[in-house]
Amino acid sequence: xxxxxxxxxxxxxxxxxxxxxxxxxxxxxxxxxxxxxxxxxxxxxxxxxxxxxxxxxxxxxxxxxxxxxxxxxxxxxxxxxxxxxxxxxxxxxxxxxxxxxxxxxxxxxxxxxxxxxxxxxxxxxxxxxxxxxxxxxxxxxxxxxxxxxxxxxxxxxxxxxxxxxx
Length: 166
Hints:
The protein is mainly alpha-helical. It contains six helices and two strands. The chain starts with a helix and ends with a helix.
């Protein structure tokens, strides 16, 4: 029953991400694009709250260095894949929009399933180690994806500053 709830949550999460992406494709990116970086702040707050509540009464410890490095490398790979699927365009009205990408939903689904498979593979780890590793992987790929997306937006916005300046 617990696995069914996890799968339903993952399906709902995938659906929400795709729905939100579809909804935003018709709206320009507002102001100076700082909203692109907002998920970094949200995830940082969520992870800091999660780390403080992992397992009450047990001492907190970091996983071995090599496991943290693997989580970091996977995070970089996932972040670069997500960044490669994210682009922006200037439309007729002079505003910058997220460029539609047919592969984006497949990339999101693949990354979520890869993370789920890795989660199943590493279930034998200590629960604190597992939580820290998955949080590290997610944080790194979200930071790379969002900062890279923001830089892509700023580059396009800088080239188009005179049009958006009003």
